[in-house]
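Archive maintenance. Older records in this collection stored only the sequence; we are now back-filling the structure field for every entry so that each record is complete. The fields below show one back-filled record exactly as it appears after the update. Entries are processed alphabetically, and histidine kinase is next in the queue.

ARCHIVE ENTRY
Title: histidine kinase
Organism field: Salinispora arenicola
Length field: 429
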Amino acid sequence: MTSAAVPEHPWLLPGALTAPTARVRRTPRDWFVDSLCFLAAVGWAVVAWGDSLSAEPALALNVGPSWLNEVDLLASLVLCGALWVRRRWPVGLALASLPLALFSVGSGVALLIVLFTVTLHRPFPVAAGMFGAHLLATPIHLRLRPEPAMSLWLIVGWTLLFLGAVLAWGMFVRARRQLVVSLRERAHRAEAEQQLRVTQARQLERTRIAREMHDVLAHRISLLSLHAGALEFRPDASPQEVARASGVIRDSAHAALRDLREVIGVLRAETGVAEGAEPERPQPTLVDVPTLIRESRAAGVRVSVVEEVADRAEVPPAVGRSAYRIVQEGLTNARKHAPGTVVDVRLAGGRGAGLTVEIRNPWPVGTAGQGAAGQGAAGPAAGSGAGIPGAGTGLVGVAERVGLAGGRLEHGRDAAGHFRLAAWLPWPA
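Back-filled structure field:
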């Protein structure tokens, strides 16, 4: 589990650009910027105050009553101090400072900073309204503080230029910050989606491993049950036969434990193959079907094989692996539900025509037969395979495997009274 990271700048928080009274902690960068703004505003106020005391009125920035200069200085210093709270109340500070635009010269820089803050943190209509109100105060300002060295139109032009530049700059910075916020949100969303895809892929892989475990262990354990049942029903068997059956049971148990250990190791591994662990064995394909048949025959199952595949090595690995698991599931079900019968296995197909896998065995006598889910009812208590429990998911897993491969599956009782499991798998040309 990961904790939410704190943004480098408070304005990167969602809604920080539009929240009217959002309280965020001021960062070192904000302290630096606010200090520069405060010093610039105070510096301009001091310069304007010193210029108002000039002995030559023609060289002064603005002329007016002497008492207005003291009021201007005091109001400018108050506004400079209020700049420290402009981030929290930009519109309120802009409205409160509007009377200063009527007469104050020393608060000019502080007023521009306040208007820039409004543009940065509020929508354009609000910012445009504030700029318009301060622009309308220009004629009154010129009447109270006339400028003898400049014409009216020149003063209005410079005022429009400064206000327009501040408005444009604030809109640009706001748009850039919104773009950064949008990109960061997209990055977080993409990261979350990637984690979701990884989780889904891991879940699908674990489902695949569980399906493989079912197929492998069901085959191994059914062989164990078959040989153990043979020893149970043949207590008078010769020592050689008992030793041979015991050896097969031991080998099958070791193989089942090895397969289970490999599957558990893969499930425990979070990423990749653990250091020092053996690599995963190659998955069986159609080439390994004869070995599967020999194991079943060694366990006493009578298997008849008809193969009409030109070259098993040419079958794609995915198709061959699915065919192997289908044959394995068919033989396992036959040992469980129809022990002692002959199992017919047929493999046919070629490039472009697809691969057909068919397993057929007689329907168990005196039972309801094998169920559609592959569990079915156990056959008569003849042989050692009777009574082997089934999970009921064998053919469900086969159907899922065939569906993922883009093939077709048929299973059930045919016209001859046999249980038939037939699958067609695509084999590209």
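Update note: Strands lie at 302-309, 342-350, 354-362, 408-413, 418-425. The longest helix spans residues 152-233.
Entry marked complete.
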